[in-house]
Input
Amino acid sequence: MKELYGTGVAIVTPFDKYLKVDSAALAKVVNHCIEGGVDYLVVLGTTGESVTLDPAEKEEIARIVIEVNMGRVPLVLGIGGNNTSKLEEELRSTDLEPFAAILSVSPYYNKPTQEGIYMHFKQLAEASSKPLILYNVPGRTASNMLPSTVMRLAEECPNIIGIKEASGDIDQVKKVINLVPKNFLVISGDDITALPTVLAGGHGVISVLAQALPSQFSSMIALGRQGENDQAISLHRKMKAGMELIFEEGNPTGIKAMLEYQKLCSAKVRLPMLEAGTSLKNKIGEFVDQVLKMPV
Output
């Protein structure tokens, strides 16, 4: 699925001062990303604080993104969790037509075996009318989807087309790349491993930082995919501090502080997350000022 090569962005959910969904700010963020050259958008993922949203809010957010996007870039919808039967029902009852694919996180808290992970995704793939992208993020789920399990799903489930690999382990990323079919998407789920993943033969990234700096991040990934390694590595080094800063107090705390500095949305987050502290906001502001002076 070549339309999902390159730079994807995990969109935040902007809130107003009452912690209600800020539709106007969401539209600004979407336009900022698309005009900055990103290749696709991911709606209602972890960065979008999906676990704190009710069903009506999720519908509203999806509707706004679809309307503002106007078909300019592909959209991926986040539908994931740790209750397999409930997710199957959600996949069957949701209008998936506007979306190119579904991003589904590996079950969290339950800590299933590799066989349990395999059966979970096999059933979701059979229930979904759209292709499925696996999401491995052991730091949040407390279980690691092993490369052998990814290979099995890639070979045995035609409706599973890729993985967002956020283990942070580039050796594991390389193992996945070597095991799966060439057309199976291997997408970095960590900004810090985005360029190393592409240089190792991966297809791109689903990024957090790219929604604040879409031109710079998209250029880095495009250069990496074109084999312009020196230029790509130079951009990576210039953005590395930002990749670390936005996770210093958790996600999406940091990226929302960065977007607030750029006057795109407020830094408000819903509990149990907290808004970025003054010290972090100051460091983020200094970083943004420095990066925006860079040629793209």
Observations:
- The domain at 2-235 is CATH 3.20.20.70 (TIM Barrel).
